[in-house]
Each structure stands twice: as structure tokens, then as C-alpha cells.
Amino acid sequence: MKVLILYASITGNAKGMARILAQFFEHAKAQVTIGEMQQTDAAKLLNYDAVILSMYTWSGGTIPEESQDFFADLKQIDFTKKPLVFGLAGTGDRYYGQDRYNTAPDHFAAVLTQGGAIQGASPIKIEQGATQKDMPAFATFTKQVISKVQSVQA
After folding, report:
1. In this structure, are strands 31-36 and 2-8 parallel, antiparallel, or unpaired?
2. Which pTM was predicted?
3. Closest CA to 91 of 9, 150, 4, 28
4. How far from chain centre, in Å, is Cα 122?
5. For residue 59, with 0-12 CB atoms within 10 Å meaning exposed, 13-18 middle and 19 or more buried, which class applies?
């Protein structure tokens, strides 16, 4: 199984989540590629069985500035020809209010789903950086995404 993990990170928290997820997927024997959203052509997603996006939510509840071009390019891709399973991980700060907390993953989920991609697990949403107490959520997320990939490829 080929898994692409992309991140947009300003403080290092989303990059840290991407690295944690890479370890979980590698432990499950997946072939993992990791990189930054802003340096990735969105059409490259078509070469993978699963794509995991890790990002932060910018003030006002918006997607990260450095992911806006990638986000726009996702809207142009048809994911219905070859099933693509996706998962999302977000980091946020409750300081900005509950209605703006960790909403970037929801924006990405909407675009990917509209393009025909299949959500493999509920998003992981954490405040600030990942800690040891978040590891069970990462393990469950990984298992759910792998299970979804296996079911759509069967």
C-alpha cells in the first residue's frame, strides 16, 4: 500500500503529526512518502492508495496560507477513476473560539469528497502539538485508513 503524507506547518506541530503518522503507517508495512503541501503537485495524489493531510487552522478558521494553491488544485482533480482514500489531521488553538477551532481539516474533507475521494477515518484534531495521550487516536486512525483502503481495493 502506497501512502502519501503531506503537511502544512508553521510551528512544527502539523509536521510533527505527519511524522508520527508516517511511523504508524510504516509499522503497518505501508510504503510511505512524506512532504510539504506547498511543494507537491496535487495531481501526484493519483499515484497513491491513501493520502494523509496534516495541517493547522489559521486564525479565523481558515486553511494555512501556504496550502491555498494546493487546496485550489485539489478542486480540479477527479478522484473517481481510481479510488483514493484520505485521512486528515489538524492542530488548532482554542484561543480563536470554538467555531474556528481546527476547521482546516473540514475544508479539505469537503474538497476531497466533492472530487470523489473516500474518507478513511474521522479527522484527528488536537490542540497545539501531539502528546503521548494522543497516540491511541493515531493508532486507531491508521487502522481505519488501512481498512478502508483494503475494502475499496477488494
Report:
1. parallel
2. 0.94
3. 9
4. 10
5. exposed
Whole-number Å distance between alpha carbons of 62 and 24:
28
Per-residue pLDDT reduced to its tens digit, 66-111: 999 999 999 999 999 888 999 999 997 776 666 666 889 999 999 9
Torsion sign, CA atoms 126, 134, 107, 23: positive
Residue in this structure with the C-alpha cell 502539538, named with its chain if needed: 129
Write the DSSP string, 24-42: HHHHTT-EEEEEEGGGS-G
pLDDT tier at 59, thresholds 50, 70, 90: confident
Whole-angstrom CA distances from 145 to 1, 12, 66, 97 are 11, 24, 26, 29
CA distance 34 to 21: 10
Residue 42: per-residue pLDDT? 95
Cell of 63: 486553511
DSSP letter at 23?
H
Q: Quick one: pLDDT at residue 82?
A: 87
